[in-house]
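WARN  no MSA supplied for this record, continuing single-sequence
INFO  ligand: adenosine monophosphate
INFO  echoing inputs
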Amino acid sequence: MNVITTIGEIKQAVNNLKQKKVTIGLVPTMGYLHQGHLSLMQKAKQETDRVFISIFVNPAQFGPSEDFDQYPRDFERDSRLAQQSGVDYIFYPSTEEMYPKGFCTYVGIKKLDRIMCGKNRPGHFTGVCTVVLKLFHIIQPDIAVFGQKDYQQLIILKKMSRDLNLEVKVLSHKTIREKDGLAVSSRNQYLSPPQRKNAAILYQSLIEARQMLQKGQEIETVRKKAWANLQSNTFVDKVDYLDIRDAQTLDQVIDIGQKNDILIAGAIWIGNTRLIDNVVLRG
Ligand code: AMP
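INFO  complex generated
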């Protein structure tokens, strides 16, 4: 496994592989790898000849009062796990390498960045799109794999890829969960033991909401019930959002009678930790 920190060197490695017609799969991450990340790497491995991952805590996607400084980092551990998972290249750039002095070009997405996670995280998806587009240009992958856990991010990146005519195929992979249903996340380690015990309330509420929809209950009733359910847990300090939307377009859904897949997604604060999750009701 190769660890490369500069854009020049990784481009060189990519060019060598491209000349040999070797296909490339990319898994962008912010590190502190867990089973969710590893499952994306396995998928990339099944689909392509060489797997690249990037480990980069991207400052552009964090707001000024968010957890950029505290975000967990452990490169030694990450590289061990990546090697065990059969990763071929880790791209591990510094902030200066990705955003040199004077950097001022950003990729924005309209409308979709104002809803759900974007509502209270202004600029977040601009930061995500910018770094991912840079990674796509630098590594020129044939496929890139993203988790359904960050569902809105996945839809936005698929849209960016289509809108900007990128060659890369954006693939998704299911959410990996702990035994009690909590979606695995690098941020789960912020939770104290009692907070951790209660954190599965998010997934449970989403599942319950899906069951209510399946039984034909009204969307607004279901939304309110799930919201109240979350709020009734003493460890949940705030419900950021609980949305029921079209799973392809992320448009608000009014009538459950439609045949499309329906996304039920939410974000909550447990203490200083923001957790997100979603489930899909197949149409
Ligand atoms: P992150 O390091 O949090 O930026 O995540 C990197 C990639 O891993 C993103 O595509 C995430 O959607 C994906 N991911 C994060 N958690 C999970 C999970 N529990 N299951 C599957 N994929 C995940």
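The two ends are 42 Å apart (CA to CA).
INFO  checksum written, moving to next record
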